[in-house]
Amino acid sequence: MGSCEETAGWRTVLPLLLLVHGVAAEQWPVPYKRFDHRPKTDPYCQAQYTFCPTGNADGSIPLMKNEDVIDVFRLQAPVWEFKYGDLLGHFKIMHDAIGFRSTLTGRNYTAEWYELFQLGNCTFPHLRTGISEPFWCNQGAACFYEGIDDQHWRSNGTLVLVATISGSIFNQLAQWIRDDNNTGIYYETWTVQASSDPNSSVWFDSYDCSKFVLRTYEKLLELGATFKRNIQTNYTRLFLFSGEPVYLGNASSIFGPQGNKSLASDIQKLYFPYRPHQSFKELVMSILDIYGKVVLDKTFYLYYNLEYWYLPMKPPYIKIIYEEVPLPSR
To answer: Would you say residue 312 has pLDDT above 80?
Structure first.
């Protein structure tokens, strides 16, 4: 937990950073950065569970006949339902996906977007011995595979028909999914907002499984799909609440040879309690440390678009909201 002297020192440095980097971003929320290709994953990053084990290795999606009629399903189930059943569902921590069924062939398909290296790796970095810069194993990607696991989605979640489209629309959507997947490569856990008021300023938006579903619905609407009405659709969002964020710089400007050693040390200290594979005693101390940094010091550092931001945290600090977002309509 930071001392009063450390906190006071940071507050002294903050006005200088404001002068150097500017008080605010040019646009809130900060736009999610798109890329022209997906980078190769670093061998250091290892997933506990294989990403998209039954999908095509090249990410391809089969074409449908133009005259086919495709049912579109909303799929939702508790996160890690395969391991913990409906436990996380009680906390409204849900995973979202989309199902498709061809009426010509009778075949079913599932499309979903999630982390390559599980949620913890996408939310917090690794701190490696002797290396100042935090190392991020953060990629998310679309997974398309044949079949819909009815039991998985129905037992503790949702499997409901939301639209019917033509094979032609599906083929256009398939190309869009590949393009979207190749340019939107990083997972973002948090939505950062000024307050819990729904109309408050949004500083950063999440980029996760639910946002993939919402983007896909909007694309289907654009392509001519009509969604059923009177179907309530809610999505899990993890919120951080802060005052207006301050841009700090990228990894090179903070952790490089000419970087800000004091700021680099502060960022390392903040992320240290989130390290994996802790003993029970270490975990208890880490929770106290996190409470001290976020609640008492009101400090969090967000890594977004490969850059770091200072968040002046404010109550209620963090919240899980199961937010209703209606199906799109014209």
So the answer is: yes
Whole-angstrom Cα distance, residue 297 to residue 328?
41
Tell me which residue of 81, 88, 93, 85 sits closest to 49, measured CA to CA. 81
Whether this model's pTM surpasses 0.70: yes
Which residue type does 90 have?
Answer: H
β-sheet bridge partners, residue 236: 322
What three-state secondary structure class fits 271? helix
Range of the domain at 120: 4-324
Whether residue 330 is contained in a domain is answered as: no
Note the Cα 323 to chain centre separation in Å: 15
Helix (H, G, I), strand (E, B) or coil at 147: coil
Number of folded domains in the chain?
1
Q: Residue holding tokens 């940071």?
A: 10
Instruction: Give the Cα separation of 136 and 301 in Å (integer).
Output: 14
Please state, in angstroms and rounded to a whole number, the distance separating the CA atoms of residues 305 and 26: 15
Q: Residue 252 in 3-state DSSP?
A: helix
pLDDT score recorded for residue 83:
78
DSSP letter assigned to residue 133 = S
- Say whether the peptide bond before residue 43 is cis (omega within 30 degrees of 0): no
Under 8 Å between Cβ of 30 and 129: no
Task: Report cis status (omega within 30 of 0) of the bond before 257.
Answer: no
Decide if 318 is inside a domain: yes
User: Each residue of 239-256: pLDDT tens digit?
Assistant: 999 999 999 999 999 999
Q: Is residue 329 part of a domain?
A: no
φ, ψ at 112 (rounded to 5°) = -150, 165
Of the residues 95, 122, 143, 152, which is catalytic?
95
Q: Indicate if 95 belongs to the active site.
A: yes
List the catalytic residue out of 90, 152, 209, 277.
Answer: 209
Q: What CA–CA distances, in Å, run from 25 to 69, 90, 204, 251, 276?
A: 45, 37, 11, 18, 32
* 21 tagged catalytic: no
The C-alpha atoms of residue 1 and residue 7 are separated, in whole angstroms, by 10
3-state secondary structure of 112: strand
